[in-house]
Specification:
The complex is a heterodimer of chains A (307) and B (273).
Chain A (H helix, E strand, L loop, with lengths): L1 E3 H15 L3 E5 L3 H4 L2 H6 L4 E3 L4 H12 L4 E7 H5 L3 H9 L6 E5 L17 H6 L5 E3 L4 H13 L4 E4 L4 E3 L14 E4 L4 E5 L3 H14 L4 E5 L2 E3 L3 H7 L5 E9 L4 H9 L6 E6 L10 H7 L4 H11 L1
Helix pairs in contact in A: 1-8, 4-6, 9-13
Chain B lengths: L2 H22 L7 H6 L1 H11 L14 E4 L5 H11 L38 H14 L6 E6 L6 H12 L5 E7 L2 E2 L2 E2 H4 L5 H7 L3 E6 L3 H13 L5 E6 L22 H12 L2
Parallel strand pairs in B: 1-2, 2-3, 3-7, 6-7
Antiparallel strand pairs in B: 4-5
The chains are: A alpha/beta (307), B alpha/beta (273).
Chain lengths: 307, 273
């Protein structure tokens, strides 16, 4: 079953806003795409159209949080995290403010719009900030959990969201926990540690490896920061190597976070991700995933090299 | 306003200036010039205009103050100490390791509402506070002091358009127009042109005053808080370093040390103002 992450996000944001009157939304002229439009339609007084001005939007969100509101500030991931980086650092994270930044259409998912609209750097720039929590959900179920968790955390949160219909991997019983790895498939020889959209593709890679007689464990990291190092070390215990899988540059994202976490007791690693490049336009999302080496075949080949 | 009240406020401004010298101390670089230029305005806000209570710091309907030109926070620290937010002795420890009085405003300091220092962000934060206050039906006013040099930051003009679009009559920007930025005169280094005209063109109700004339300051604060339907800007003509002759109208004391002799001279001159 496929469910669109943006749709799931909008449904949960609206449900949250109905329960909690402190929740407000801001957007920089992309509310139809990010789905913050659900707040404008249902609670117009709690929606703030900030025009195409992301820097002002983030500092305004900081001000709103200082009056007790729980602002969710939206744009495409590349603009939400990149344009106002200094505002996120200075206005929001330094004073530990309760601002939620939602980076929509992340990675390659805005396939048609090309390099300016595709974000491969946001996990790196957001996780480097002290006090920031970074969620990168893999499906609609986890997206809804991330909305709830973001509201429950008293502090800055970045949620990275894909814009496409994605397979549903989890259900309401899945024991999500901030910072904890989730073993989604058992295996003994190699660990595929993935985040966001790449978790579903890592599952397919594990299937491919199985046909070659290789047992792969799939570990989903829906939180990039904070990261429970001990829990991650336990989750990868016993394998001979790790392949990290992310729709993001290999510099500073999931692969780096895993390497940092395990560097005291390292395992051989390979990183599947964007190789220090910018994006480009294509007629469909899958075409870009192939072009940038983010397929089950790429992951399986990386795993085989470790063994 | 009666002359005794104005005289009282001038004494508060003197106390703020002495507090700035105290906080600056010796052997520490500090932003003397921009703190002195806004000292009278800061005194008028804390000791005349704003509803606030150091014993009830978080009362929901308190007026909000943001020093967007965060480097001038010494003026705010001096006012907060004078108002009783923390002991005056704390001023001496400004900018020392672990002190609540950092080089730029941080919320850990009692009375400081927002972190500023990366220029250009304070007015936007003030918009958020003004929107939040309106949403909650609270009648407070948000006051933001900006520097004229700071107006080169593009985000300020995003905020100026936003405040106008949201018709925030509970928000006032006060431009401490001392005409000098870190490296020289603003008109020589980066000429911002007609600042009042720019705010007016963006739909703000504007006032222009002598930022060292207490009567003009309190009148402008009163008038600005009464305006309905649009945000207000007070363009205050000021003198960088006002009150300390060797620091007046120069960028040399934008961020600098005082010698013992200079410190004594500064105190003498402030007492004689």
């Amino acid at each position: 079953m496929l469910i669109n992450l943006r749709t799931a996000y909008g449904e949960e944001l609206l449900a949250l806003a109905k329960e909690n009157s402190r929740v407000v939304a801001l957007d920089a002229d992309l509310c139809g795409s990010t789905q913050s439009v659900v707040i404008e339609k249902n609670f117009p007084e709690r929606y703030f159209e900030m025009g195409i001005g992301e820097q002002n939007m983030i500092s305004v969100a900081a001000g709103l949080s200082l009056t007790g509101k729980i602002p969710f500030a939206h744009s495409f991931a590349v603009f939400a995290s990149g344009r106002p980086f200094d505002q996120i650092r200075q206005s929001v994270c330094l004073p530990k403010l309760n601002v939620k930044i939602v980076g929509s259409s992340c990675g390659l998912s805005d396939f048609g719009d090309g390099a300016t609209h595709q974000s491969f750097e946001d996990l790196a720039t957001m996780r480097v900030l002290p006090g920031m929590t970074v969620f990168c959900p893999a499906d609609a179920v986890e997206t809804k959990w991330a909305v709830r968790q973001a509201a429950a955390i008293d502090g800055p949160v970045y949620i990275r969201l894909n814009r496409n219909d994605l397979p549903v991997l989890f259900d309401e019983k899945t024991p999500f926990e901030t910072g904890k790895p989730l073993v989604v498939k058992e295996g003994s020889q190699v660990a595929l540690v993935a985040t966001g959209t790449m978790t579903a593709i890592a599952m397919e890679a594990a299937g491919l490896l199985e046909t070659k007689g290789i047992s792969a464990r799939v570990i989903h990291l829906g939180t990039i920061k904070p990261l429970d190092t001990a829990a991650l070390a336990k989750a990868v215990n016993g394998v001979r190597g790790i392949v990290t899988c992310e729709e993001h540059t290999i510099y500073g994202g999931l692969g780096s976070a895993v390497a940092e976490a395990l560097c005291a007791a390292p395992l051989p690693m390979r990183m599947v991700g964007i190789q220090d490049r910018y994006g480009q336009s294509a007629v469909c999302y899958d075409e870009l995933l192939v072009h940038y080496g983010l397929t089950k075949e790429n992951i399986a080949a990386a795993a085989e090299k470790l063994l | 306003m009666n002359p005794e009240r104005i005289a009282e406020l001038k004494e508060k401004a003197r106390a703020v200036r002495l507090g700035i010298i105290e906080a600056l101390g010796l052997e520490k670089r500090g932003h003397l010039g921009g703190s002195m230029s806004c000292a009278d305005i800061v005194a008028a806000l804390y000791f005349y205009k704003m509803r606030h209570d150091p014993k009830d710091r978080f009362m929901p309907d308190r007026d909000r103050f943001i020093m967007s030109k965060g480097h001038s926070v010494l003026a705010q620290y001096a006012a907060l100490a004078e108002a009783g937010y923390f002991p005056k002795e704390t001023l001496k420890k400004t900018k020392t390791l672990g002190c609540i009085l950092q080089g730029h405003p941080e919320r850990e300091t009692p009375g400081v509402e927002a972190n500023t220092g990366s220029l250009g962000q304070g007015l936007s934060i003030g918009i958020g506070m003004a929107l939040g206050g309106r949403l909650d039906g609270l009648g407070y006013h948000t006051w933001v002091i900006l520097g004229d040099g700071e107006l080169a930051e593009g985000q300020v003009w995003e905020a100026v358009t936003a405040a106008s679009a949201f018709k925030l009559d509970n928000l006032t920007a006060i431009v401490d127009m001392n005409g000098i930025q870190a490296v020289g005169k603003t008109c020589d280094r980066y000429d911002l042109g007609d600042i009042r005209g720019k705010f007016s063109a963006f739909g703000w109700k504007t006032f222009e005053i002598d930022g060292h004339d207490m009567t003009q300051i309190v009148r402008a604060l009163d008038e600005a808080s009464e305006v309905k339907g649009v945000p207000t800007a007070i363009i205050a003509r000021t003198v960088k370093g006002k009150g300390v002759s060797f620091a007046e109208n120069t960028h040399a004391y934008h961020n600098n040390l005082l010698t013992k002799e200079q410190q004594e001279q500064a105190v003498r001159e402030i007492l004689a103002m």
